[in-house]
């Protein structure tokens, strides 16, 4: 019995050894397969998240591009609309003020030019309208570039009063009976500076008004020098000495109109 029991125990112990080895191998294989499945699952989830993130980034970039394009188109349309309004204002003021100076015989055109209807002034309104559009668009651009937003009397009532004062200064240049051109020029210069101080008071407005007066006076000198028209009693080369004052006050007036139009466009874009 003891011998058989020893044999049986040896057989059972010999059978248990491979069974233990088999079970450990199965556990390792199962753990390896589970780990590989978990890793595959994590990698697939990471790939899915990466693809979704890429889709979201593409959607966001497309939305930003469309928003930028729409904003750019809105700004371009607003700029064009403001330019057309300023051009129309410049043409209207040029027609009215030039007619006043012709009636008072401050500016004289050749007789052959005056013989045909509107041929004497056909080029003046487009030139003045273009200048008004350029100056009116430059004023708010210069304010934003210098970082000095203009906030002094920003309402349309003030702009209309500025236009009325400018027309009054131009009317005074042909109505005042002052024989001395120097006194008349000083009077109009004081009125022009008073217009700037009353309705502008900005360094950019003063600098751009002086630049406008200088360039417009040089352009007028060239026109008179080439015989397009002439001034009566010229005392400043070929023109009257008070002409830069008119150009200065006109530049300040048109600049205020341009600023008000720009402020209206900004408010409208913010509301939209």
TrEMBL record:
Residues passing through the membrane, by range:
83-102, 122-142, 206-225, 237-258
Some GO term, biological process aspect, for this entry: which one? cholesterol biosynthetic process
Q: Which InterPro entries match?
A: INSIG_fam (IPR025929)
The entry lists its GO molecular-function terms as: lipid binding
Q: Which domain of life is it from?
A: Eukaryota
Q: How does it sit in the membrane?
A: Multi-pass membrane protein
Q: Which keywords does the record carry?
A: Cholesterol metabolism, Endoplasmic reticulum, Lipid metabolism, Lipid-binding, Membrane, Steroid metabolism, Sterol metabolism, Transmembrane, Transmembrane helix
Recorded GO cellular component terms are: SREBP-SCAP-Insig complex
Where in or outside the cell it occurs: the entry states: Endoplasmic reticulum membrane
Q: What does this protein do?
A: Mediates feedback control of cholesterol synthesis.
Q: Which family does it belong to?
A: Belongs to the INSIG family.
Q: What is this protein called?
A: Insulin-induced gene protein
Q: Which organism is it from?
A: Takifugu rubripes (Japanese pufferfish)
Which gene does this sequence derive from?
Answer: insig1
